[in-house]
C-alpha cells in the first residue's frame, strides 16, 4: 500500500514537473520557431543560444507590479487565471505516458489514473477550462475583456461539438473510452502484428480533431479571444504580472496536453513501429516508447507553432461558418461511414 | 468515509443552491449553480456512475452553464439593472415553489418500503449503460432522441433571420 502511494506520488510530481518544463520551454521554442520562419535570430542573450530565456521571462513576470483594476471583482479576478491554470494541468492525469515498467516483479503503469471514461474526462476538463477565460474577462470590468471572454465561450462551445463528434467515430472503431486501451490497441505500429495507428482508419476524424484542438487552445488561426488588432489584448487586457503569466502559461500547457491527446488517439501513443520485433525486454521498450511519445508530442507542438506563424487569423463569421457548417456535418458523415464500414466488416466479410 | 463524503457533498449542494437564489448578482448565481452541479456530480461518483458524472459535467457545467453565463454577460445584467418583480409575482412564485416541495415530500414518503437495489460495481460503466439503453429501454431512448431533434430543428428555425421565414 505504501509503495503504491510512493509510486503514484512520484508519477504525479514527475508529470507536473515535466508539464511545467515543457510549457516553459515551449515559450522559448515558439520564439525560436517564429524567428526561424521570419528569418530572424530570436532570443540569444540569456545563456548559450538564449537557453535561459524562459527563466529570465519568469523572473521578469514575478518582479513586475501587480495591478488589480479598481472596479474589478477582486475574488473572481484572481479566480480566473487560477481556473485556467488548474484545468490545464488536470488533463494530464488520464494520459498514458508510457506502457508499464516491471520492477521487482511488480507492474507499474506510467499513467496516473486509468479511468474507464478517460477521453470524456479530457473533454470535461477542457469544457471547464473556458470558465477561466470567461470569469477573468468578466471580472476585469473592461469592455474589451468582456468581448474576448464572450468570443472565447462561443468559440469553445462551437468547436467542442465537432470535436466530440470526431471522437465518436474513433470510439466506434476502438470500442473503448479508456486512453490506455486505445493506446494498447495500436501496439506495434506499422510492423509485426499489423496494427495500424488510428490515423490510418480515421483520417477525416483526425483532421477534424486537429482543427478543433487549435480552436480549443485558442491558437492562431483561432485566437480571436485575444485578437490584438480588435480587442487590445482580449480577455487578459487588464491582467499584469504573474496572473497574465498564468494565462499565457495555461495556453502552452493546453498545447502540450492536446499534442499528447492527439498522439495517443491517432498516432499510437507510446507505441513505435517494429517495437515487438526488436527482441528487447519490457522495460527497455517502455522507456523507448515514452521517448517516442515525447518525440510525437514535440512534433505536434512544433506543428502548432508552424501554423501560428504561417496562417493569418480567421474573421469571426468565418470561424463560426467553419465550425457549424463544415466541421459538424463532416464529422456526422464520418460517423455514418465508419458505422457502415464496421457493420459490413462484421456481418458480411467474416 | 463514503457517508461523510455524502454529507459533505449534500451540504455543498444545498448551500450552493441557496446562494444561487439569494445572491444579488446574476453572474454570481450562475457560478454558485456550477458549484451545485459539481456537488451533484460527486453524488453520481459515489454511486459508481462514472459515465453519468462525466456527462453531467460536460453537458451541464461545461455547456449549458457556459451559455447561461454567455447570455448574462452579453446582456450585462448586474445588481443595478436587475428588474424588481411585483408582489403578486413573488406571491405566485412562492405558491408554485411550495407546491413543488409538497410533491417532493409526498413522493419521498413511501421510499423506505421500496426494495433496495443491489449494488454492482460496474453499474455505471459505459458498456453496461449502452447495452441497457439499446436493448431494454430502446423505445424511450429513441423517442428522447426524436424529441431532441425536434427541439434542435425548432431552435434553428427561430435562429434564422426573419426574411427566410416568409414563403
UniProtKB/TrEMBL annotation, chain A:
Gene Ontology cellular component annotations, sorted alphabetically: plasma membrane
Q: Cross-referenced PANTHER family, in alphabetical order?
A: NADH DEHYDROGENASE SUBUNIT 1 (PTHR11432), NADH-UBIQUINONE OXIDOREDUCTASE CHAIN 1 (PTHR11432:SF3)
Family of this protein: Belongs to the complex I subunit 1 family.
Q: Does the keyword Zinc apply?
A: no
Membrane association type: Multi-pass membrane protein
Q: Which domain of life is it from?
A: Bacteria
According to its UniProt record, where is this protein mainly located? membrane
Pfam hit, one: NADHdh
- This protein's name: NADH-quinone oxidoreductase subunit H
Question: What biological-process terms (Gene Ontology) are attached?
Answer: aerobic respiration
> Which reactions are catalysed by this chain?
a quinone + NADH + 5 H(+)(in) = a quinol + NAD(+) + 4 H(+)(out)
A GO MF label: oxidoreductase activity, acting on NAD(P)H, quinone or similar compound as acceptor
Q: What does this protein do?
A: NDH-1 shuttles electrons from NADH, via FMN and iron-sulfur (Fe-S) centers, to quinones in the respiratory chain. The immediate electron acceptor for the enzyme in this species is believed to be ubiquinone. Couples the redox reaction to proton translocation (for every two electrons transferred, four hydrogen ions are translocated across the cytoplasmic membrane), and thus conserves the redox energy in a proton gradient. This subunit may bind ubiquinone.
Q: Which segments cross the bilayer?
A: 6-28, 75-98, 118-140, 161-179, 199-215, 244-267, 287-307, 327-348
Where does the UniProt annotation locate this protein?
Cell membrane; Membrane
Q: Which PROSITE patterns match?
A: COMPLEX1_ND1_2 (PS00668)
Its EC number is 7.1.1.-
Describe the subunit structure: NDH-1 is composed of 14 different subunits. Subunits NuoA, H, J, K, L, M, N constitute the membrane sector of the complex.
UniProtKB/TrEMBL annotation, chain B:
Q: Which GO terms describe its cellular component?
A: plasma membrane
| Compartments, as annotated in UniProt | Cell membrane
Record has NAD as a keyword:
yes
| Known EC number | 7.1.1.-
Any one Pfam family here would be Oxidored_q3
Q: What is its main location?
A: membrane
For this chain, one GO molecular function annotation is: quinone binding
Per the record's keyword annotation, is Metal-binding included, yes or no?
A: no
Q: How does it sit in the membrane?
A: Multi-pass membrane protein
Say which enzyme class the record assigns. Answer: translocase
Please give the catalytic activity noted in the UniProt record.
a quinone + NADH + 5 H(+)(in) = a quinol + NAD(+) + 4 H(+)(out)
Q: Which parts pass through the membrane? A: 6-23, 30-47, 53-76, 88-108, 137-158
Which keywords describe this protein according to UniProt? Cell membrane, Membrane, NAD, Quinone, Transmembrane, Transmembrane helix
For this protein, the record's InterPro entries field holds: NADH_UbQ/plastoQ_OxRdtase_su6 (IPR001457), Nuo/plastoQ_OxRdtase_6_NuoJ (IPR042106)
Q: What does this protein do?
A: NDH-1 shuttles electrons from NADH, via FMN and iron-sulfur (Fe-S) centers, to quinones in the respiratory chain. Couples the redox reaction to proton translocation (for every two electrons transferred, four hydrogen ions are translocated across the cytoplasmic membrane), and thus conserves the redox energy in a proton gradient.
Give the family per the record: Belongs to the complex I subunit 6 family.
What's the protein here called?
NADH-quinone oxidoreductase subunit J
Amino acid at each position: 500500500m505504501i509503495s503504491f502511494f510512493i509510486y503514484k506520488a512520484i508519477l504525479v510530481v514527475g508529470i507536473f514537473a515535466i508539464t511545467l518544463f515543457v510549457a516553459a520551454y515551449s515559450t522559448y521554442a515558439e520564439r525560436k520557431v517564429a524567428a526561424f520562419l521570419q528569418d530572424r535570430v530570436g532570443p540569444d542573450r540569456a545563456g548559450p543560444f538564449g537557453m535561459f530565456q524562459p527563466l529570465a521571462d519568469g523572473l521578469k513576470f514575478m518582479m513586475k507590479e501587480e495591478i488589480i483594476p479598481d472596479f474589478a471583482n477582486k475574488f473572481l479576478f484572481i479566480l480566473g487565471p487560477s481556473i485556467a491554470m488548474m484545468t490545464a494541468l488536470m488533463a494530464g492525469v488520464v494520459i498514458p505516458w508510457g506502457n508499464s515498467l516491471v520492477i521487482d516483479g511488480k507492474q507499474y503503469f506510467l499513467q496516473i489514473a486509468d479511468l474507464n471514461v478517460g477521453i470524456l474526462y479530457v473533454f470535461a476538463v477542457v469544457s471547464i477550462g473556458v470558465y477561466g477565460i470567461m470569469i477573468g474577462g468578466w471580472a476585469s470590468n473592461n469592455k474589451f475583456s468582456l468581448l474576448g471572454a464572450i468570443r472565447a465561450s462561443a468559440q469553445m462551445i462551437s468547436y467542442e461539438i465537432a470535436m466530440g463528434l470526431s471522437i465518436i467515430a474513433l470510439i466506434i472503431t476502438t470500442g473503448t473510452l479508456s486512453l490506455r486501451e486505445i493506446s494498447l490497441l495500436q501496439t506495434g505500429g506499422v510492423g509485426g502484428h499489423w496494427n495500424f495507428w488510428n490515423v490510418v482508419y480515421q483520417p477525416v476524424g483526425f483532421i477534424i480533431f486537429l482543427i478543433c484542438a487549435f480552436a480549443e487552445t485558442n491558437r492562431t488561426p483561432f485566437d480571436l479571444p485575444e485578437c490584438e488588432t480588435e480587442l487590445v489584448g482580449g480577455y487578459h487586457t487588464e491582467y499584469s504580472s504573474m496572473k497574465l503569466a498564468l494565462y499565457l502559461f495555461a495556453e502552452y500547457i493546453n498545447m502540450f496536453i492536446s499534442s499528447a491527446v492527439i498522439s495517443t488517439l491517432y498516432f499510437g501513443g507510446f507505441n513505435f513501429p517494429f517495437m515487438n520485433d526488436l527482441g528487447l525486454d519490457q522495460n527497455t521498450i517502455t522507456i523507448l516508447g515514452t521517448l517516442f511519445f515525447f518525440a510525437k508530442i514535440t512534433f505536434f507542438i512544433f506543428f502548432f507553432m508552424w501554423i501560428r506563424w504561417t496562417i493569418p487569423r480567421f474573421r469571426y463569421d468565418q470561424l463560426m461558418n467553419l465550425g457549424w457548417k463544415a466541421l459538424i456535418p463532416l464529422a456526422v458523415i464520418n460517423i455514418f461511414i465508419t458505422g457502415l464500414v464496421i457493420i459490413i466488416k462484421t456481418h458480411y466479410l467474416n | 468515509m463514503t457517508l461523510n463524503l455524502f454529507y459533505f457533498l449534500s451540504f455543498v449542494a444545498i448551500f450552493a443552491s441557496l446562494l444561487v437564489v439569494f445572491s444579488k448578482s446574476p453572474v454570481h448565481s450562475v457560478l454558485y449553480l456550477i458549484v451545485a452541479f459539481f456537488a451533484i456530480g460527486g453524488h453520481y461518483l459515489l454511486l459508481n456512475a462514472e459515465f453519468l458524472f462525466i456527462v453531467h459535467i460536460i453537458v451541464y457545467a461545461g455547456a449549458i452553464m457556459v451559455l447561461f453565463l454567455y447570455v448574462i454577460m452579453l446582456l450585462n445584467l448586474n445588481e443595478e439593472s436587475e428588474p424588481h418583480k411585483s408582489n403578486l409575482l413573488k406571491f405566485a412564485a412562492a405558491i408554485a415553489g411550495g407546491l413543488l416541495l409538497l410533491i417532493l415530500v409526498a413522493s419521498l414518503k413511501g421510499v423506505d418500503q421500496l426494495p433496495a437495489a443491489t449494488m454492482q460495481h460496474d453499474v455505471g460503466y459505459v458498456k453496461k449503460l449502452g447495452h441497457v439503453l439499446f436493448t431494454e429501454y430502446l423505445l424511450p431512448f429513441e423517442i428522447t432522441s426524436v424529441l431532441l431533434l425536434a427541439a434542435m430543428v425548432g431552435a434553428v428555425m427561430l435562429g434564422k433571420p426573419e426574411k427566410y421565414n416568409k414563403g
